[in-house]
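Hi! If you just cloned this repository, the fastest way to understand the data is to look at a raw example. We've pasted two of them here, unedited. The first protein comes first, obviously.
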Amino acid sequence: MKTSVALIGFMGVGKSAVGKILAEKLGKTLVEMDAVLIKKTRKSIKQIFDEGEISFRELEIKAAKELAKGRNQVISCGGGVVLNKINIDRLKKDSIMVWLTASPGVILKRTRTDKTSRPLLKSNSRVSEIRELLRYRKPFYERAADIKIDTSKLDVDSVVNLILKKLSEYEDFSSQK
């Protein structure tokens, strides 16, 4: 019986905002993967990423391994966690994987004001970068996802309610803490 929910998806799709409310409604603990990395390294995500994407992904693998051992959690994963199959294999053991999506324009609008903590969006042609990264990551998200929800035209409460409805359809998911 799975007891956790892992939120996956690109930056700006609503993982953190949705995760907070979803965890409250399910009576589960919210865990932000990025916060785990920050706590362990005592560095910002940008600082960690500036040391190289490979070392960032290695830290992410360690964090996913640790978080996958927990139960009764809502895990807000980093946007690139799906790039390493081992992360998904570990998380899927006790988590329903919920892929949150949004259009490139919506992602740009949601991330536009955050110029410092989005290490993958560096240039002035951010919408092109978003499109390219989404195109590359799409098959990874598709393989990992149990549930897919487009957040482009939905508010946070609507997304949470959709997730709750879809979770109720999973016989192997326990919404009980």
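Ok, and the second one:
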Amino acid sequence: MKSLGLLAGFIPLIIYGILAGPSTRSVEVALIVSLVALAVVAYNDLVNRFILAWATIFVFGFSLIAIGVFNGTVLIPYMGIFIYLTLATVSFGSIIIGMPFTLQYARRMVDKALWEHPRFRHVNVFMTTVWGLVFLINLAISGAVLVLPEFTLLFQIFTWIALICGVAFTIIYPGYARKGVSGRLDSG
């Protein structure tokens, strides 16, 4: 799964979004399957202490314990808020501490000679910021579901659109940015 890079880290979120339904049982199953998927697709990320992988373990693990063990079913309507608040906090927090979470994935795919280049760091701050904004948008959408539950299906569609845009950006932007970094290194 190394070839999926950053995108592998979002597989558990996608699985959760597909499997979690209105029942406590469906949420528990979604959390368990998401955690198993994370262990499979992001095992190396966990071993290498990647921020996103550990944040996902925290979100889904904490939720599973709260809901499955302590019968915290009151949390179920707030799962989207909890998930996206945590991921947005991790995104912007990782930038603040000087280790944008996308940097860990980018280093797997880029020649080590570029790691210290200011443009490489800038690209990863930008990518992490974009993901932070995707998470903030989905956080707002999750809050809107609580206020306007009659539009839940529409809001779910908007959530998927935001995630798909983030995935498309993650696929397209590094190639564009790589050309910019290579060109600047060659000319300067």
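That's it. A detail worth noticing about the second one: The chain has eight helices and no strands.
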